[in-house]
Every structure is written in C-alpha cells, then in structure tokens.
Amino acid sequence: MAKREGTPKIPAAVREDYWGQGVDLKRFFLCVQGRLWTVLAAALAGALLAAALYAIVRQVTMGPPKYRAEVLFFIGYDIREEDEVLKEFINEYNAYTWGDMMKSDRVVLPVMEAVPEADRQEIEDSLSTEIASDPEFLTAYFTTEDEELSNRIAVAYIGAMAAFGETMQGRGLTGIEAWKTVPAARVVPENRAANAAALGAILGLVAGALLLAGWYILDDSVLLESDLSHRYGLRVFGYRTRKPEARWEAALNENLTYRARKEAFREVLLEEVTGEGIDYDTLREAPILLLIQQGTPCLRRLSPILSTLALQDVTVKGAVITEADNRFLRLYYGRPLRHRLLQEGEELQLPAAFILDRDMK
Fold it and tell me: How far apart, in whole angstroms, are the C-alpha atoms of residue 126 and residue 128?
C-alpha cells in the first residue's frame, strides 16, 4: 500500500520571514482609514456612557439638599513688634486649630443654649473653617439640611466667639468680631459630568483603537503582492485593476510574456479550484497561474485550496491579484513619476514590486 504524502508545508525560511515581518504602517493606515469612524464612535459612546453613569451615581448619592451659612470672623491678636513668642503663636493657629477650639466646651456650650433644637453632634458636624492667607481672618461655614437651622447656628456662633474673645483678652487676643455674614443658601454639589465624559471619551478612544488594531491583525485578506509572497512564497506577476490602468497592465503583461517564453502555463480562477468536481488531471498538464481576487481571506479560503493543489501535484507557478482597487494601489505605491511614450529601443520601466527575478526558475 502506497504511503500517503502529508500536507506540504511552507518552507521554514519563508515561514520565519513571514512571522518576522514588522507591521506595514502604510498598509495599516490605508486599511483602517475607512474605519476610523468606529474609533470616534467608540469615543462618543464612552463619553455618553460615562456621563450617564456619573449622573445616576450623583443622583443616588447626593442625598437631601443642604444649606450653608457663612461668617467671616476677624481675630484681633495682642502682638508687639518685639514679641517673637506671640508671632510664633499666631503662625501655629490655623483653620484646623480654630475649628477644634470652636468645638470646645467654652464655645459650643453657649451655642447649644442658643439653639436648643440641635444637639452637640449636629452642631459640630455642621461646622467647617478656613483661613485663606491672613491669620487674622477666619471663615466659618455652618451646613445643615435645614436653612433656618444653619442661620441660627451661625448667629449663635457669632455671639459665642465674641464672648470667647473677651475671655482671651490679655492672653494673646484683643477680641473676635464678625465682619461679614452670608445667609444660608442651598449647597449645589459640584457637577463633574464634563470630567466623567472626558474620561469616558479617552477610554472609548483607547478601546476603539485596540479593537481596530485587533481587527487588522485578524484580517488576513489578500490586498498586496507581499501578502502572498511573504505568507506562501508565491510570486505575484502583477495586478488586474477594476478600472484598466496602463501602469499595472504594462507590468503584468511584461511578466506574463516573459514567463510564457520560458514555459507554457494556464490562468485559473480561484473559483475554478473551489468546491467539488475539480478536474485535477487537466490541471496537472501544465503549471497554473492562480487569479486571486483582492480581498480573498487567506486562512478560510486560500490556504485550504493551496494545500489541496499541492497534494494533487498541481504546480502553481504564481498568482495575479484581480479586481484590485486602483485608488488603494495608487496610495500604497504612489503615483508614477512621469507618463511618457517609450522611444524606440528603450527598455520598459516597471514598478520594482512586479518585476520577476529573471534568474528564478
């Protein structure tokens, strides 16, 4: 019983060369330029989704409305020019220190007496302080869920702080006065929907770019002669474009004419060697030149056909890429430097990518 031959493999050198190829940036940008809208759509979708999620979370976590009253206190310090100790004392008193003192018994107990409807914890929780730059000016904020209560706590603190300042006279302070009061107003939580949308747009842009890159990596369509020569070691004789163009027709005809002078061959459409009922005996009679339409997938269609032809001892001398997009080729290879008629005896100048090596058998 004859031993069945295994599926012919691509030569190791060709396989290593294919996997060692870097990314053809020109091919990449030409392929994805028509799909850049998907990246922009992903960025827009990310922005809308992030903004919507932020709005929902903000609404859920916002809680009941709050009202904040504001009082600007002036703190008079008893300082002499030569008293370095008191100067250091002032520098150590910041907004955090005053916030603690305003929650001490000496200040908060009079406030509780003036506002009996609020307990101590509620009063202390309502208080926050701030000193911008000048230590003599202290801004206190009183925030509660009741507008009137915020105002009453603010008024009570004005009296309590003035009384505290009087007790500190001769001990570093001359007094504490309220220089400005702002009635309670509703606190509007900061809306960062724009920030959320910007972040969502960036993430969507990155996700869209990654998806587009993934599509390009997985897309193994035949677009250029390098797709066949690098992957299968097939020589590509040229292109037949959708709209006849002298540049590509001349290169293809020159290569076909040269090959025909060396040996007979037949052109075979890829569709003719697909499916059942293929006459392999006829195909073995002479080497064939496969006509492969631009955009044909390699793994799903071309690879099985080439493997079958090799198992059937059908000689494939090369390929021609048909239905090629004129604009795609023009953008990839560039325009010819000049168009002119050849003079008598002048050699035809062909694009380097399509001139077959005359020494190749």
Answer: 7
pLDDT tens-place string over residues 96-117: 678 888 998 999 999 999 999 9
Residue 73's DSSP bridge partners are 138, 178
| H/E segment holding residue 144 | strand 137-144
CA distances (Å), origin 39, targets 20, 27, 205, 304: 28, 18, 6, 34
pLDDT tens across 137-168, in order?
889 999 999 999 999 999 999 999 999 888 88
Joined together, the tokens standing for residue 12 give 């190791």
What angle (nearest 5°) sits at the alpha carbon of residue 205, between those of residues 201 and 206?
120
Q: How far is CA 74 from CA 107, 140, 141, in A?
A: 16, 11, 15
For the stretch 96-105, what's the b/e string if a residue is b when 16 or more beta carbons lie within 10 angstroms of its beta carbon?
A: eebbebbbee
Cα separation, 328 vs 347, whole angstroms: 27
Residue 20 confidence class, pLDDT cut points 50, 70, 90: low
Q: Which residue type occupies 271?
A: E
Beta bridge mates, 77: 173
Give the CA-trace dihedral at 13, 15, 19, 25, to 10 degrees.
Answer: 90
DSSP 55-70: HHHHHHHS-S--EEEE
Rounded distance between C-alpha atoms, residue 8 and residue 27, angstroms? 29
Q: How many CB atoms lie within 10 A of CB 340?
A: 8
User: Taking the CB of residue 48, how many other CB atoms lie within 10 A of it?
Assistant: 14
Tell me the CA distances in angstroms from 190 to 22, 51, 54, 330, one per residue in order: 49, 14, 12, 54
